[in-house]
Design brief:
single chain; Elongation Factor Tu (Ef-tu), domain 3
Length: 445
């Protein structure tokens, strides 16, 4: 991940003129607390002219604009000077539209970061150069930076961009500012390269920036820190959206059952089964199986949200009408009858524990898979992952914000796939049966 290698890779995509067809890019900023995530988003909004003048005037104090205030919307965030909830903002450049999510850096709000990352096309990981031992060639990244990066890997975020922020604030008694900042960029880049190699993250770019001053954010600051690559916005404009998962066979979890107003229709079923297509494509004439159970039917009509007939693929909402009446309720699934997804009660999974109470084997939880609620028991904790060393160590419990591998036993079978094959059918959440708090993000392995 050397600077020169990245530059060669990026320029070929950044200068690609055929980007107009790309859909809006949804990306998040993440990293440790107070690394400049909200300030970076504010800079992107201001430099892309997505903020009205009266809004800018409202966050101006003593002639200075507090860029972080553009996204910290909760009163508690403004009072404490931190990000608590995920804030989404919209902006566009001449080449592309963007949806950007500002995620909190505090450990106690890791669950909010996971929620935002699960649907993101890309992630910008900010690293505050002033918090690190930048003069040390063997420096280590902050614990929360490592945790967020590892979660991005587990959540299969397609594009990860590392940005080293606040390099403009690096000072040294023995070196000039330029020499100190160049040395800091070199040593921190080496630490990022080593960590990315450990967790097998393929970084799209590594960009030195000053979110406060706007260097290399929208406009390039050529030669700074010996970096001559594209700016952050140039990299973002070149990224593709999240690709369709590799599992090609149809599956849909039923979210809502709608009755026909004309109940005398008997040529086909008289209910519409609405839900998002989890995998594959829904098309007329396809034979489907109802899960759970053994009933089969043929798709008679496929509707989209405006009732127009058609063929609907993964990620889109579809209304399915079958050729006959079949007993189906919310939470049931329609799957390809010729290539059925196997049901499973025992699930091996990587889990990001987010409850205040530790996870221990033997406890019962509510699990939500697609639109199906089912009780489950934590049968075994196989190991936990050490955030610092990335080693797998034996564990009898998972503390808040720890990541580990567990075995879950479900009360009923679910049509599950590995998360590497399907984000929709390979993920669950665990909910505490007493407090009803979301306790964990579960990625089926």
């Amino acid at each position: 991940m050397s600077s020169s290698t990245l530059n060669m890779q990026e320029v070929s995509t950044v200068n690609n003129p055929n980007l107009g067809h790309l859909a809006a890019l949804k990306f998040i900023t993440c990293g440790s607390v107070d690394d400049g995530k909200s300030t970076l988003i504010g800079r992107l909004l201001v430099d892309s002219k997505a903020v009205l003048q009266d809004h800018l005037a409202g966050i101006e104090s003593h002639g200075e604009i507090d860029l972080a205030m553009l996204t910290d919307g909760l009163s508690a965030e403004r009072e404490q000077g931190i990000t608590i909830d995920v804030a989404y903002r919209y902006f566009s450049t001449e080449r592309r539209k963007f949806i950007i999510g500002d995620t909190p850096g505090h450990e106690q709000y890791t669950r909010n970061m996971v929620t935002a990352a699960s649907s993101a096309d890309a992630a910008v990981v900010l690293i505050d150069a002033t918090k690190l031992d930048w003069q040390n060639p063997a420096l280590e990244l902050l614990r929360q930076t490592r945790r967020h990066s590892l979660l991005l890997k587990l959540l299969r975020v397609p594009h990860v961009i590392f940005t080293i922020n606040k390099l403009d604030a690096i000072k040294s008694d023995s070196l000039s500012d330029q020499e100190a900042q160049t040395l800091a960029y070199k040593n921190i880049s080496a630490a990022i390269e080593q960590f990315a190699k450990q967790v097998q993250i393929t970084a799209k770019a590594l960009v030195p920036i000053s979110a406060l001053k706007g260097w290399n954010v929208v406009n390039s600051f050529e030669g700074w820190c010996n970096y001559n690559g594209p700016s952050l916005i140039d990299v973002l404009e070149s990224l593709s959206n999240t690709p369709v998962d590799i599992h090609a066979h149809f599956a849909q979890s039923v979210q809502w059952v709608e009755k026909f107003h004309d109940s005398s229709t008997t040529a086909h079923g008289r209910r519409i089964f609405w839900g998002k297509v989890s995998t594959g494509t829904a098309k007329v004439g396809q034979k489907v199986k109802v899960f759970p159970g053994t009933q089969t039917a043929v798709i008679s009509q496929v509707l989209n949200t405006v009732r127009a007939p058609g063929q609907i693929s993964e990620g889109q909402s579809a209304g399915i009408i079958l050729d006959r009446e079949v007993d189906i309720s919310r939470g049931d699934a329609l799957i390809d009858a010729d290539h059925p997804i196997e049901g499973s009660r025992e699930v091996n999974a990587v889990i990001a524990w987010m409850d205040d109470e530790p996870l221990v084997a033997g406890r019962m939880y509510h699990a939500l898979h697609a639109h199906k609620w089912v009780k489950c028991k934590v049968q075994k904790i196989a190991y936990k992952i050490d955030i610092n060393t990335l080693e797998q160590t034996e564990a009898s419990e998972l503390a808040p914000n720890e990541i580990g591998r567990v075995v879950l036993m479900l009360q009923q079978e679910i049509p599950s796939l590995k998360f590497s094959e399907s984000r929709n059918l390979g993920a669950m959440i665990l909910v505490d049966t007493a407090s009803h708090r979301t306790s964990a993000a579960v990625l089926i392995d």
